[in-house]
Amino acid sequence: MIRVAVVGTGGIARYSHMPSLAGEAHRAKVVAAVDVDAARVKAFCAEYGVPAAYTDLEEMLAAERPDLVHICTPPHAHADQAVACLSAGAWVWVEKPPCLSLAEHDRITAAERGTFAAVVFQQRFGSGARHLRRLAAEGALGRAMVALCVTAWHRDHEYYAVPWRGTWETEGGGPTMGHGIHQMDLMLSVLGDWTEIRAMARRVDRPVETEDVSAASVLFENGAVATVLNSVLSPREESYLRFDFERATVELRHLYGYDNENWTCAPEELWRPPDAVPSGHAPQLAALLDSFERGERPPMSGADGRQALELATGLYASAFTGRPVRRAELTPDNPFYHRLNGEVAS
């Protein structure tokens, strides 16, 4: 059995990670949970039958020696916690956004020593996305030319009453980082790496330090051009992706997850997914555990897990500087590599 620990026992752990782990009970067992709130972690362990509750990560790692740690804490805690777990000999599955900067992401990757850190980017793992990538790779759709990537969500003022939300220091960014990053990652999985981005990010209404809406035009290495919109101001919520290839238009309309029925293709005869797997934590966890059992680097670790954060970094860099930003510029001597609003620590 793969010994699993869960760090952070809030909503994402309860409603996404624990149900997914229950589906893998034949090969994975949750042996411990960690939360800074002692009462909350004890209640979590009682509810899910987890044998050991801790309020200190290092103590848990030393006592339990887990094989895999699910990190479900706020974004500002991710980098230090991931490095601690990797150094203790555990694999890591960390919620998005994986960390607050490319510098932190590269620090996490540098801590891998036969252990690996993967990011929760579950939109890639539904059968519709897998089928689209297969068709694109085989050339069945022709050359990719145009894409739209829209995350039009709604988060009210009460949502931002949680102290760590809406600040550069603790959340790292606004809807670009915390919401739209899912659709941007799915777009990247189809179109590949980008070369240049022109963007704006604005605080229109919500009481935050970060943006509450961003928009960008993106040029990809393969020549495709995409428009990206990220918003938490949209009363009618929707996640929307459109890919225009030479011979087909493929669209995805959903909100927080999709199944095959959420996809359309024109012409229809090109769209015949061989299976029906909804997007979500469960199929990504299955792939992660498969990789663990084989001792191989899992999907959405290393360069794969860095792609969406890199695009978000480019978007912020362009928005703050007011100029086009090339992907090749996002090196350690660039202030946006270290902090997404470009501020340099004194």
Automatic annotation (TrEMBL):
It holds the Pfam family GFO_IDH_MocA_C3. GO terms for molecular function: nucleotide binding. Residues 130-247 form the GFO/IDH/MocA-like oxidoreductase domain. SUPFAM superfamilies: Glyceraldehyde-3-phosphate dehydrogenase-like, C-terminal domain (SSF55347), NAD(P)-binding Rossmann-fold domains (SSF51735). It comes from the Bacteria. Gene3D superfamilies: Dihydrodipicolinate Reductase, domain 2, NAD(P)-binding Rossmann-like Domain. InterPro entries: Gfo/Idh/MocA-like_OxRdtase_N, Gfo/Idh/MocA_Oxidoreductase, GFO_IDH_MocA-like_dom, NAD(P)-bd_dom_sf. It comes from Sphaerisporangium rufum. This is Oxidoreductase. Residues 2-113 form the Gfo/Idh/MocA-like oxidoreductase N-terminal domain.
